[in-house]
UniProtKB/TrEMBL annotation, chain A:
It is a multi-pass membrane protein. One of its GO terms (cellular component) is endomembrane system. It comes from the Bacteria. One of its GO terms (biological process) is ATP synthesis coupled electron transport. Residues 65-115 form the NADH-Ubiquinone oxidoreductase (complex I) chain 5 N-terminal domain. It is found in: Endomembrane system; Membrane. This is NADH-quinone oxidoreductase subunit L. It comes from Aquirufa rosea. GO terms for molecular function: NADH dehydrogenase (ubiquinone) activity; NADH dehydrogenase activity. The lineage of its organism: Bacteria, Pseudomonadati, Bacteroidota, Cytophagia, Cytophagales. Keywords: Membrane, Transmembrane, Transmembrane helix. PANTHER family: NADH-UBIQUINONE OXIDOREDUCTASE CHAIN 5.
From TrEMBL, chain B:
It comes from the Bacteria. GO terms for cellular component: endomembrane system; membrane. This is NADH-quinone oxidoreductase subunit M. It is found in: Endomembrane system; Membrane. Residues 134-188, 264-469 form the NADH:quinone oxidoreductase/Mrp antiporter transmembrane domain. Belongs to the complex I subunit 4 family.
Amino acid sequence: MGLTSLFMGLLLFPWISAMLIAVVSSLPKQIIVYFSIGLSLLQLSIIGYFILQLGGESTSWQGNWFNVGDITFSASFVATSSAQLIALLVGIVALLVQQFSQSYLKDEPQLARYYLYLHLFAASMYLLLFTDQIWIFYASWELVGTCSYLLISFWHQKQAAIKAAKKAFLLNRLGDIGLLLGLMGLSMHFHTLEFSQMQVSSYGPAPILVGLGLLIGAMGKSAQFPLMSWLPDAMEGPTPASALIHAATMVAAGVYLGIKIFPITGEDLHLLMAGIGAISLLSGAVFALFQNDIKKALAYSTISQLGLMWMGMGSDASLLHLFVHGIFKAGLFLSAGSVIHFLHQQKSSHHLDSQSLSNMGGLRKHLPWTTLGYGIFAAGLMGLPLSNGFYSKENLAGLLWENAQNSPYYPIYWALLGCLGLGMLLSNWYISKQFYLIFMGENRQGLHFEKNTTWNFHQNLPILILALFSLFFWISPNVLHFQQSSLLNWFHLKTFEVPSFWLIISFLSWVLGLSLTWFTKAWIPLENYRFWSNFWPSIFELTHWKARWAYLLDSLILDRFLIWLAQLQVISGHIFAWADQYALDGILVGLNTKIYQSAGQLLSKWQSGKIQQYWIMVFITFGLFLLYLWM
Amino acid sequence: MGLPLLSFIILLPLLGSLLSAVGKWEKGLKLGATGISMLQLLALIYMGSTFDQTSSSFQWKEEVTWIQLPLGSLGNFIIKYSLGVDGLSFLLIALTGLISLLAILNSHTITEKKSGYFSLILLLNAALMGCFLARDLFLFYVFFEFMLLPMYFLIGIWGGPRKNYASIKFFIYTLIGSLFILIVMLGIALAYIDPYETARHLGLIQEGQNFDLEALKNLQLSIANKEIASFDIVHSFDMQALSDVNNCQPSSILHPNSGWLLQGMSARMWGFWLLFIGFAIKLPMAPLHTWLPDAHVEAPTPISVLLAGVLLKIGAYGWLRTAIPFFPAEALESANIMAALGAISILYGAYNALAMNDLKKLVAYSSVSHMGFVLVGIASFQAEGWQGAIFQLVSHGILSSLLFLMVGVLYERTHDRQIDHYSGISKWMPRFTLISGIAIFASLGLPGFSGFIGEFFSLLGAFTSPHIHPAWAILGAFGILLGAGYFLWTFQKVYLGKTYLFDSSWQLTDLNRLEIISLFSLGILSIIFGIFPQLILDWSNSFVANFLTTLP
């Protein structure tokens, strides 16, 4: 099979899969599930075969789509190495999530709809990754947002779910206006519609305003500061779908946009991007500490980690962390799903909130494999050696350090490095703390669960596969160095030298983070604050205070501001409508209004409904007008 | 000349109208009307298959002299029955044919005075077709006015509780608009001469002989030098003659060099704005739109569908065919104001829709918002903007029809259109929820559906246009966000969430076969045009390209 037809097949197959699922949707559930997983497996094999066939090179395909005026809109696709890498991630996670879902959602009557949405999402995501034409990019950008809307509101009987879905869609749309205008600006600046044809050498880098528009779009999709508040709410959707969309792939589309525009924008924009990333990294990490709901904590953790990718400014360091994070974060979500599922099953006897940390603790005895997986994923998030996260975090630090040596803006890079260190510390703290609170110790409610005797194959398999991928040897056989990595060489990823002092900082952050967890192990967010008086009150006060402020900023000001803005729109809508009904309507026709009721006696003669009278009125008016013309 | 296919397309529904008015049919009325509509659609398909898309000139031309009037020193007047179809016309008559068929199919709610109803709806169809096919301004005006009568009665007799108010309001608004158009029509016809007819009158050419470009130039020169005696001049309403400013008599105030000013505006500027406003009422453009929500709320579903799907398009068609070609320089000069009015329409309509609790009013205001994109696109005077505007006309025709049919489905079952009287109806009506979801996402401009292409190209044209300020495009882009706001809000309130009905005795049954066919065919069309926009763009391309090259 030729490469071109393989490429086209790769792009079209997910759409066909979605249609096939729609066609067979009335079959028994179990058949649909296996059918869907089979399709997904086939999809992943196509991607794998495609990447192998390419041998590290890129390929492109272009066909005329339609013409408008002098512009030819072509359907052009290019499989760059970054797109191949992320497509591989999407393929793997999509398959594992489908496998996990069959157990997680086995009581769901509308399973076909769920699988249909997953396939639609995958189809739009591949389109987004492989397209070269900016408007197909925009279209698929909106399509993945719509799939996210559909999946968040999957349980549409839940009021919170549909509210969250709407919020997500609208905040994304707000960003999309920026993206729309930014892409228009991009095409005007470079006189082309293809990303790959944009020549910095002949036109110079894109103006900062254009870049800003693009960044606003990316902010919405990646839930970055200040458009971040939709992501924690989006956790109302089914957990496996969150793992795919709101952790591993869709939210990373913003970073992918950053990767796409990295070569065509200037350093000022890169620094702005990194700055936004740093704010998100820190605030996300602080929020994650103060969550009682484990999924919400993971959502804030996603915001924080996406911020880390943004600090890579769209360079290869961003891409590597995107891939690595996708694996371990999907794993974390699936593990959390497994925990929630376990507690949910006990619900009949205990009536408890299955997502609340207060009801957890000591779950290692019931879910040993999940515990193992969760531990490995958490190690990845912390960037411990032997995990895949180690390489990507060190790589990011290396990038910032290298720029700090060479760039005229070096103070900013040093500040970013500082933020990175602090962010790592906070990340180490919250994730190890969460691990401890879920699995270690004893159950805090004193609940006695029946021991989970059955080995839940459908849930454990994907978690263990992801855990395997989260280990170091996929990237490099050498624990501490990855310059010789065959994976990175295959996809032409540039790596950066890490200064040796950074290893010490990393080491300190692990030690400090883990000890913080140990010392704060009795503290459960939003539940008890007793330890405040016992341990370093001022520092925690400060963190607490910061979190409070950040929370206030997020929920009261930013979020509220957006809600107010939205409410203001509705209010102005009402005012406009009132004006429309009473003033405009009243002036133009002079019927119907309460204001005019006083003059009603005179006007009621008008309302006779006789056409002749209106004709007379109209002709008198017309006559007066003509008179005016001739005078 | 060949087959008089265009006359056939207009006369067929006229004949049907006459038959259903005089005959005593009971059972066969709807069947007959459907048959006529389908026959018309067949004729349209035949025409489409033999149409030359690459040509910008009119095809299937028909021309007969209708009225000849010697006016002494004012010259001679000629009114022609001349029809023709180009890409733009074809798109709109195809839309008319399709939407009429759907409206007739969905007329089962009409139970009384059926013969009158079908007679009027066929009459309306004939008038609409005539409007889009006329090449003579007078003929266009006749059809334009003729539309008023059936529409007035269709709302006034079969409408809702406030039907008298709504129908009269509709009537007055449209009438004022047509008065503006009438003033300009008479003025411009008096000021311009028809060079071809004048040459024939002078004996310079024979009947059926071609009038080459050089002869035209010579004749125009002799007009400019006042060499032709005034009683030899022939005036006509031929739109092509009126589109050439060289045909203007130098003594007229409409001549570019006349120096005549009124309130600081030249006569040509006045002419442009009168025509513009006349058609803007029809579009409708804020703040001239207040007739629309009332008319929609009171009209029965099929009439709402025709009103939103086809009638509104005449406003934009009028601009593209008359206002802008007659006064191109003035239009270009006013581009910024037009774009501003368009942006205001987009936002104003969207804000109003946001505040509505009546489902039909919401859709009506969304029409105001969506037609604002058409105005912004036209004001750009760029190929992208114009193509986008024309695409938006067709797309909105499909989508607003779909939305009104959707409201009709609900209204027919409960006789209630309040949004807060429903919640979670997806439980009872899953198929209806599916198609409503498609309609709503298509209308809020999701890529992959036709709504996106129209809005996108209108904005793209406006953003890149040298004639208008990009701020209007940016303002218009916020309409996309507001659109998502009110549509998703509606979808969430009515279809999703906990199940609740205002009146627990309501029986919400899912779609029947007819509803499935009519709703899903529109939804699928929207998807097809969204993925293969060239199916529409190729039709309008030569019109747009040809016209924009003639701009000063």
